Each structure stands twice: as C-alpha cells, then as structure tokens.
Amino acid sequence: MKWKLNIVVSLAVLGTLLSSAAYAEPKHDKGSNQSSSSTSTSTSTSTSTNDQADGKLKEKKEKKEKKVSGEKETVTSSTYGSHGHKGYKGLQNAYENVKDRPAGAIISKLLEKYNLQLNDTADIGSILADSVIEAENNGDLDIAAEIQTEVIKSDSTNLTVYKKLGALNSKRGKLGVKAYVNGLEPNFEVPPMIKDGNTLVPFRAIAEALQATVTWNPEDNSVTVVKDGVTVKLVIGVRKAFVNGQAVDLEVAGEVYNGSTMVPARFISEALKADVQWEPESQSVVINEVEEQTPDIDASQE
Prior knowledge:
By secondary structure, the protein is α+β, with helices and mostly antiparallel strands. The chain contains eight helices and twelve strands.
C-alpha cells in the first residue's frame, strides 16, 4: 500500500510540474515578443532620431554654404547685375573671347587661384570683375578695358558696366561720346557727337548694326532705312522725318559731317523699335533691340 501511495503522489507532483510548464511557456513567448518589439521600436526610433539630426545638420550646413555663396554673388551682382542680359553663359563667352590674349592670362590665373573651372559659371562674373580690378591695379588699363568690353557684350542693358568702362577710358585718355548697339561699338568713320543737347550718330553705322537696309538718294539728299516692315526717311537739313509715311518732328535736323550722315540717336533707334538709354558718366548712348514677346497659347484652344 505504501508503494502505491508513493506512485500516486509522484504522478500528482509530475502533473503539477507539467501543468506549470505548459502555462508558463506561452507567457514567456509573449513576453519575448513584446521585448523584441520594444527593442526594435527603440532602435528604429533611435535611428530615426539620428537621421533627423543628421538631416538637420546637413540642411544647416547647406544653408550656410548658400548664404556664403549668396553674399559673394551679391557683390558681383552690384557690379554686373544678377545674371546679365545673356546670363552667366554670356560671361562665360566673354572669357572664351579673350582666353588666348593677355586678358585671358589674368582670368586663368584667378581661376587657378580660386581653384575654379570654366564650367563653374556662377563664379565667372566675379572672376571677370576681379580680373578688371587686378589689371587696373597693375597698370594694364588696356587689358582691363578689354575685359570690361567683353562684360558689356554679355550684359548690354546694364548701365553700370558702361560706367566702369567709361572710367577706364578716362584713365586711358580716350574721351568723347560713345555709342553701343546690343553691347557692341560699331565701327564709326565719324564718332558720335552732341549738338543742342541731342546725341547725333552716324546713320548708316547704327542702322546696319540694327540689321536694317540703308539707301542714300542724292537727288533730294535723303536717306531711307527699312527694317521689319518699318520705313524711315530723313532729309538732310530738314527737322522732319517720315516713319511709314507719317511725319515726325525732329529736335535736331540730320546733317552731313566729314562725309557721314549724322542723325539723332534716339529718333532713329526708337523708330526702328529699339530701346535707347543715355549713361551720362561715360557719355554713352546704349541701344538695344527689344526682344518681341511671344504670346502664350492656351493649349485648350488649339
């Protein structure tokens, strides 16, 4: 009987142990999953926080770099405008035009100094500005004027660039009225001049620079220019001109001076639909063709 009692007790104890193990096992797995999930979430949160911190640091660094770049560009912009008439591409072309001449050597030296390449277009304007200053400081006024002339070609509507060239020309002893068409100075047989407060320019040179056709009629001492459907006729010595047959009064009559027909710059330029500005410090007549705006076409109406 005693051994039977021992067997019963042993079986009861074993059953209790197995029951406890079976009950504890799922609880343990559930706890492991929660712990694992918690650890994963914590790791993910930590990684996300680190990524956000790195992102903010990177963004702050980029903003700082942009700010520094912006300050440098502002200095250039105060002299040459934000992007110029033709943008930085025009300034890049300015370098291309002088790279094989002494002016190009100065620009190349500065590009090397600042560890820049020609394709760093955002800095070419600054390099050209510094090149003009360096050449001027070295007494190379002709080279400085050459570089500034190229800058004018790339930014022909900005009057500030003409002021700088005028200051250089003054130091070089090259005084007098200048006229520019689309940033280029035409080859004048007779230089522009001022008469009764009006700037007179050689008619043919200006008209041809604006790609117009010029005809001289010796029978009535008149000159006729035609461009894009506009016909302008002017009689020498008469303070009246005709634009597409309509009479227009002139403040100063056209005249012949040293074999060239001189006409009011503003009249002939505006008659041919060009923009005319006067820069007093350099005494420059600045003429630029006005780009026609193409009207937007609504695709829904096509």
